[in-house]
Amino acid sequence: MSGLQIWQKNELPKVESQIEGFIHTHTANEQLKESMLYSINAGGKRIRPLLVLATVEAFGQTATQQTYQIAAALEMVHTYSLIHDDLPAMDNDDLRRGKATNHIVFGDALAILAGDALLTGAFELVAETELAADKKNQLLQLLAKSAGANGMVAGQVYDIQSEQKSLTFTELAALHQKKTGALIRFAVVSGGVLTDQDEQVLSKLDDFATHLGLAFQIRDDLLDELATTEQMGKKTKKDDAAGKNTYPVLLGMEKAKSALCAELTQARNILKSLSFNDFNPTLLLEMIKLFELERGNQ
Amino acid sequence: MSGLQIWQKNELPKVESQIEGFIHTHTANEQLKESMLYSINAGGKRIRPLLVLATVEAFGQTATQQTYQIAAALEMVHTYSLIHDDLPAMDNDDLRRGKATNHIVFGDALAILAGDALLTGAFELVAETELAADKKNQLLQLLAKSAGANGMVAGQVYDIQSEQKSLTFTELAALHQKKTGALIRFAVVSGGVLTDQDEQVLSKLDDFATHLGLAFQIRDDLLDELATTEQMGKKTKKDDAAGKNTYPVLLGMEKAKSALCAELTQARNILKSLSFNDFNPTLLLEMIKLFELERGNQ
């Protein structure tokens, strides 16, 4: 196992136990609890919480319970968004990561409510965290901004509106900056907030995460184009069929690969520009490799 | 006009302009904005924000911008819950307050997302409010707790689960304590938090609001039984048809009326027990009258 893999294997259970502990102690209804936990434990890669932790470590600090709680809240927001996106009224997906989606197992009503509860719970978890009140507020505000009508939700609306309509590269990038980019930016910037970085550093972290977010989406589109249903554990070529805008459709495969490479290079360069005392981006650089196409679907 | 009506007419626009201002400045997409504003302006009675303001005034304080913002956030949470509850996957209501429901006008996908955006926006609005950070956190935590998997969302799940199943009075009351009671309790208790009341007073406010919340639901059930579709602006006798548990079905009309009266008497008695210096519950007592059956559908 690589250093990153060992670290992940050690750290992720701490994030997951925060999520599970929260749901167990904050949910009045057994079926609702089951539905929430089903999607939390449906086998995601936990890219977002790992970015929180890797950023905190890059600034020479050790992750604390509060770090795990912020990472947990972020993963709850991400999970809610997947549950709602998969609904028949939205993307109508039956499978995600090789498992039946929430509404297939629990019905549409409970899936909507499990999503609502995970979103609400994420804010409750942050509000309960033992951090200085002003830092907690800053994180809460940033999380809401990233997830809301100027962030992820707006991205999802753009996505729906752009079906059967051709977007330019710039428009597609703007869509993904909101739809997937906003939470990835929160992941990295929250690591900076948790370690008390100044505005200038937070702004660089935001730039870094912006490139990472775009790379994430370009890679996802490329893998979707390349992989088969079995390998991905979800329907593929579906984006094509639904007339969705993807980077390979827009740019062709080769230019999409180059665009991915360019985003990752820019991300690396920003990390290099942050090389002051105590800054050790080893884990972040390792994580960038996860966004390379050659790593395949892991 | 009564004193309450004059006060309402003066104060409600201040809450509404906070909501509208927030949505206008925090929403990236025009159609999403339109969908959110449609449901916000669909003609609700604004009971919850009025309770926040009336409680603040009862403690001898004047409502400030921060009060209006907390009241606005609460109404946003309430509105999100109505949009999601009306969805075909949930209660499948085409009409609310005499107007087409959100998903009828904007489609299911945008209705789900407008709800998500209003919920997320409510937390963003509280986080942005210029209050002391610890008070803001207390309100945020309380709002999330009231709205989430131990509060309103759990109540909605119980409601779905109890269809075609007979509940006892205690079970029905427990359901409504979560489904509608939780936000009404937040309304009153947040007024106490905003005016720096101690734990003992907050606990009494919580009791007061608990009785008010039950009265609210019993009255709603009674009106549904009595009124016609035209008068109510939504389908009635529908609860009956769907095999839903209501107080009139469970207790009969007369006992349900007595139960409503008993809840309001207990609410009044708690207000009397709070009669220390500077406490002036005039507006709250006027608001209790809104929960009486004789006031009809206003």
From TrEMBL, chains A, B:
What InterPro entries has UniProt attached to this entry?
Isoprenoid_synthase_dom_sf, Polyprenyl_synt, Polyprenyl_synt_CS, Prenyl_diphosphate_synthase
Q: Which GO terms describe its molecular function?
A: (2E,6E)-farnesyl diphosphate synthase activity; metal ion binding
Q: Under which EC number(s) is this enzyme classified?
A: 2.5.1.10
Please give the SUPFAM superfamilies that the UniProt record associates with this protein. Terpenoid synthases
UniProt keyword terms in alphabetical order: Isoprene biosynthesis, Magnesium, Metal-binding, Transferase
Task: Spell out the Pfam families in the cross-references.
Answer: polyprenyl_synt
Q: Which domain of life is it from?
A: Bacteria
> Does the keyword section mention Metal-binding?
yes
Cofactor names from the entry are: Mg(2+)
Gene3D superfamilies, per the entry: Farnesyl Diphosphate Synthase
**What's a GO cellular component annotated to this UniProt protein?**
cytoplasm
Family to which this protein belongs: Belongs to the FPP/GGPP synthase family.
Q: What is this protein called?
A: Farnesyl diphosphate synthase
- UniProt organism field: Tetragenococcus koreensis
The organism's taxonomic lineage, starting at the top: Bacteria, Bacillati, Bacillota, Bacilli, Lactobacillales
